[in-house]
Design goal:
- By secondary structure, this protein is α+β, with helices and mostly antiparallel strands.
- Helix content is 26%, strand content 26%.
- It is built from 8 helices and 14 strands.
Length: 262
C-alpha cells in the first residue's frame, strides 16, 4: 500500500483553512499532520476537510497556542499523547494506521530568541523537552514508526542559509543540534527527507520579517519526517512545497512530503 504523508506548521488552522483546503485539493496526501493549530479541538473547521474525503481527525489543542492535528482519508486510531518537560502543552499526538505503523506528530518548542537557559527559560524548556523525548525513546525503542512535525531545529549546515551566521541563533546552535541528534539516535530514526535529497540547501521555513522572502532565500529546514530503519527503505519521493510559502495569507512554513510503500 502506498501512503503519502505531509507535515505542515500551519500557524492557525482556522485562519489558514483556505490554504489547507487548497493543499488537500491540489496535492491530496493520504495523511496531513498539522502543527501550531492554535485552536481547541472542537473549533477546528472539519466540515471542509470532510467534504474532500478527510473523514478522520485526531488532534490535541488549546486556545491560541500550540496544537497538533492529524487529518486522514485512510483509517487512523488515536493512541494518545505525551508531555515532556512538564509544560502541559498540546505538542504531540500519536495515531496508528491499520497496517500497524505508528505516526507521531510533534511540535517541539521554538525556544525563544536567546540561546541561554539562564536568561531565557524557554530555551531551557526546549532542551528539556528534547531530553524527555530522548529518554522516552530509550525506554521504548520504536518499531515501524514515523515521527514528524515542526522540530524547530535545522541540524545540518545545508539546512540553513548561512551556517556560520546562525551558529548563535536559536534553531541552529550546536547544543540544540546535539540534543536533536541524541533524540534521533535514541530512536534509531532515519531522516527521510535527507535520505531522498541528500545534497544541497533545503529549507521549509522563511521568516515573515523578510518581505522578499523568496528572493532573499534566508530559510531553514525546521520541519522533518523521520522513520525507523525497518520501514525507512520503503520511503521515496520526498519534497518540500516551497511555492506554498507564497500562497495568499501563508504560514511561514512550507509543507514537507514523503511517500511510503508499506
Amino acid at each position: 500500500m502506498t501512503i503519502s504523508i505531509a507535515t505542515w506548521n500551519i500557524n492557525s488552522v482556522r485562519l489558514r483553512e483556505p490554504i489547507v483546503l487548497r493543499l488537500l485539493q491540489e496535492e491530496a496526501p493520504d495523511i496531513l499532520c498539522l502543527q501550531e493549530c492554535k485552536s481547541p479541538v472542537e473549533h477546528i473547521p472539519v466540515d471542509g476537510f470532510r467534504e474532500l474525503g478527510y473523514g478522520y481527525l485526531v488532534a490535541r489543542g488549546q486556545k491560541g497556542y500550540n496544537g497538533v492535528a492529524v487529518l486522514s482519508r485512510i483509517p487512523i486510531a488515536d493512541v494518545g499523547d505525551l508531555d515532556f518537560a512538564g509544560l502541559g502543552h498540546a505538542r504531540h499526538v500519536a495515531v496508528r494506521l491499520e497496517n500497524g505503523v505508528m505516526l507521531h506528530n510533534f511540535y517541539i518548542p521554538a525556544g525563544g530568541d536567546v540561546p541561554d537557559r539562564e536568561v531565557n527559560p524557554k530555551f531551557g524548556q526546549k532542551l528539556d523537552y528534547l531530553k524527555g523525548m530522548r529518554d522516552w525513546l530509550l525506554d521504548e525503542r520504536p518499531k515501524r514508526s514515523v515521527i514528524l512535525g515542526d522540530f524547530n531545529i535545522a541540524p545540518r549546515e545545508e539546512d540553513v542559509w548561512s551556517h556560520r551566521q546562525l551558529l548563535k541563533v536559536v534553531s541552529h546552535t550546536p547544543i540544540e543540534v546535539e540534543h536533536l541528534a541524541e533524540m534521533q539516535d535514541a530512536g534509531g530514526w532515519v531522516d527521510i527527507t535527507r535520505k531522498d535529497i541528500p545534497q544541497g540547501k533545503l529549507y521549509s521555513w522563511w521568516s515573515y520579517r523578510s518581505p522578499n522572502w523568496s528572493v532573499a532565500d534566508k530559510g531553514r529546514r525546521l520541519d522533518h519526517i523521520w522513520a525507523t530503519p525497518d520501514i525507512s527503505g520503503a520511503s521515496h519521493s520526498s519534497r518540500i512545497l516551497r511555492d506554498v510559502r507564497g500562497w495568499d495569507k501563508p504560514s511561514d512554513h512550507a509543507p514537507v512530503f514523503a511517500t511510503f510503500d508499506l
